[in-house]
Amino acid sequence: MLQFCANLKWLFNEVAFLDRFDEAAKAGFTGVEYASPYEFKASELRSRLTGLGLRQVLINTPTDDPKIGGGNGWACVPGKQAEFRDGVRKALEYAHGLDCRLVHVMAGIQPADVPHDVAANVYATNIAWAAEQAKTAGVKLALEAINQRDVPGFFLRTQEQGAAVIAAIGAEQVGLQFDIYHCQVTQGDVTRRLEKLMPLIVHMQVADVPARNEPGTGEIAWDYVFTTIERLGYAGWIGCEYRPAQSTKAGLDWRYRHASVKAV
Predict the structure, then answer these.
(1) What count of other Cβ atoms lies within 10 Å of the Cβ of residue 208?
(2) Letter string b/e over residues 90-124, b meaning 16 or more CB atoms within 10 A of that residue's CB
């Protein structure tokens, strides 16, 4: 059966962030992910995880205030290598503190005045450097393509673009974060891409299209998609990164046909 983890940025936001860990455990989740642990001490978060028997599956590299740029990271931005490296170091420090083995490296927004080839070179160089740091830390990096409707200008736009970077750097320390929502919005043909790219996939995330609500509320044929994922032998986590259509608890029933959780 598939392993689903709760994205605590998106789920259980009826309560304060630190209370979401308890809500996730009560709902049957054994793993959690969220973009930014940096507002809290790693020891405080680790204590909550341990006390509830939860695993920290994924965190993102830090981002900056969108008003000054960097709201989606710095990896592709010329002249921001120092900020990028500081962010990677901080992410690896938190990953160690949280016993988290997977860090999503945010690609960033390609500046309008920077040619694609220049941004691509900066991005590849930064990811290669980050991969070396991750290897020393015992962490794997994840690269995620994000659709242009939700995040205009985001550098990594397709699954194949991410796969090409991984192929150039090596899959030992870098893998693909395959977000089914973003893939469907940008490219479609989700299951064919899963079949082709599965050897590179280290993490997945789900939300339905078009409204980014829970599976079963939109256009994606989830029974077929999840059956395909199981058939392909995927053994990693699948993050529930969606906006609940109503309350979080009211929208969780879809998991019980596919996940190793009990109805609560």
Answers:
(1) 22
(2) ebbebbebbebbbbbbbbbbbbeebeeeebbebbb
Nearest to 107 by CA among 39, 209, 177: 177
Alpha helices (H) in 1-157, listed in sequence order:
17-26, 42-52, 81-98, 116-137
Tell me the whole-structure pTM to 2 decimals: 0.95
Counted domains in the chain: 1
Nearest by Cα to 12 from 213, 249, 245, 263: 249
Would you please indicate which residues are annotated as catalytic (active-site) residues? Answer: 144, 241
Q: CA triplet 175, 178, 184: central angle to 5 degrees?
A: 155
Please report whether residue 263 resides in a domain. Answer: no
pLDDT digits (tens, 9 = 90+) for 158-197: 999 999 999 999 999 999 999 999 999 999 999 999 999 9
Whether residue 115 is preceded by a cis peptide bond, meaning omega within 30 degrees of 0, is: no
> At 78, which amino acid appears?
P
262 within a domain of the structure (yes/no): no
CA angle, 30 then 10 then 139, to 5°: 55
**β strands within 158-260, DSSP E:** 174-179, 201-206, 237-240
Kind and range of the H or E run holding 60: strand 55-60
Q: How far apart are CA 71 and CA 37, in angstroms?
A: 15
